[in-house]
């Protein structure tokens, strides 16, 4: 019963080991962000289909200026109780904030994405593995060269959730991001996110999480690693959409 946790731990060590030597040669840019999020997975009646609605209001210096606005709708299909497949679209408006990178105009990204999410349990622990592939159309930040550049990216995410007293719970995850050709960067690594939070189940269909995330971003120049200390406030809903 404990083997999945052991395998996950060993896999994390293998995946994260390259970051230690890769990050050592880069200047570190520390930032403080606030992310305010909504994640909705709304079943369509009694079918296996559901609608994913997501909005992330990401601010620099907690709330003082923009980091990014991300909107990400999608369609889910429950293959069974343990496996959900998803396909969707994302629109991201990103802003310059790093002190160690040149200031640039805000950019727009259009993104298609596909995902497989697997759920399983080990005693009281609920575990989730999420694999996501993204096709990205990145808007230029240079007015002299307008248009979009195409890239691919892969994300691997592992989460553990443990019940606490009453309606409370603890959750943590780690997600590693890789570029897949074609891409424009000095490294195959994009970023890593490590997150921990306390959650509260407001009612069966709604829960709230307050937590901290460290986002390590490896800038494309190869010269800077961002360490983004991020306050996270998230609302989750699985309220069913009814057609009656």
Shape: globular
CATH topology category name: Porin
Provide a count of the helices: 1
Task: Tell me the domain tally.
Answer: 1
What is the mean predicted local confidence, pLDDT?
A: 90
Largest sheet: 12 strands, mixed
- Find the count of extended strands (DSSP E, 2+ residues): 12
CATH architecture: Beta Barrel
Query: What ranges have pLDDT less than 50 throughout 5 or more consecutive residues?
Result: none
N- to C-terminal distance: 43 Å
Strand content: over 45%
> Structural class of the helix and strand makeup?
mainly beta
Determine and state the CATH class.
Mainly Beta
Order of helices and strands: HEEEEEEEEEEEE
Query: Mind telling me the C-alpha Rg?
Result: 19 Å
**Helical residue percent band:** under 10%
């Amino acid at each position: 019963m404990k083997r999945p946790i052991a395998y996950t731990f060993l896999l994390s060590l293998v995946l994260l080991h390259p970051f230690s030597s890769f990050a050592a040669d880069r200047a570190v840019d520390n930032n403080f962000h606030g992310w305010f999020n909504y994640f909705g997975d709304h079943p369509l009646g009694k079918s296996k289909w559901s609608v994913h609605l997501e909005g992330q209001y990401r601010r620099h210096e907690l709330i003082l200026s923009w980091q990014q606005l991300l909107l990400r709708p999608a369609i889910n299909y429950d293959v069974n109780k343990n496996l959900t497949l998803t396909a969707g679209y994302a629109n991201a408006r990103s802003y310059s904030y790093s002190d160690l990178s040149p200031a640039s105009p805000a950019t727009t990204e259009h993104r298609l994405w596909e995902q497989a999410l697997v759920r399983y349990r080990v005693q009281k622990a609920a575990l989730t593995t999420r694999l996501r592939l993204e096709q990205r159309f990145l808007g230029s930040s240079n007015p002299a060269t307008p248009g979009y550049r195409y890239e691919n990216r892969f994300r691997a995410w592992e989460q553990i959730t443990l019940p606490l007293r009453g309606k409370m719970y603890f959750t943590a995850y780690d997600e590693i991001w890789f570029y897949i050709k074609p891409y424009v960067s000095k490294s195959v690594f994009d970023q890593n996110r490590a997150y921990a939070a306390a959650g509260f189940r407001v009612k069966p269909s709604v829960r709230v999480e307050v937590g901290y995330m460290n986002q390590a971003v490896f800038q494309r120049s190869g010269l800077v690693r961002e360490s983004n200390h991020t306050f996270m406030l998230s609302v989750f809903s699985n309220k069913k959409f009814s057609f009656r």
